[in-house]
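Let's practice the habit of predicting before peeking. Look at the sequence and jot down your guess about where helices and strands might fall. Then scroll down.
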Amino acid sequence: MAGDPQAAERVLVAIADPVRRRILDTLAAQGAGTATTLAAGLPVSRQAVMKHLTMLQRAGLVSAQRRGREMRYRVEPQPLDATARWMSGLATDWQQRLTAITSIAEAPSG
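Done guessing? Here is the structure:
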């Protein structure tokens, strides 16, 4: 994340949409899928699924591989892992700040 400050933003924007999260969940559970098979389990059209897959690809969360006439998509977990590590680092920094504030606030005044 430190090398590409916009990577976390792309991932967070991509997973903000519930349909895209369902696509990721489905691909993770099935290993791979096509836009057609994904659309069958979603309340959106195949064209809408394609747009969501494009957004997920831009964030690096899915990759596509052509097999004959089909395009098969699969989850790429690395960007999500990197975003989780970045968020964990933020949480640690904030916890340290809160601990410092708490110790100052609870210190006996003298």
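How did you do? Residues 5-106 form a domain with the Arc Repressor Mutant, subunit A fold (CATH 1.10.10.10).
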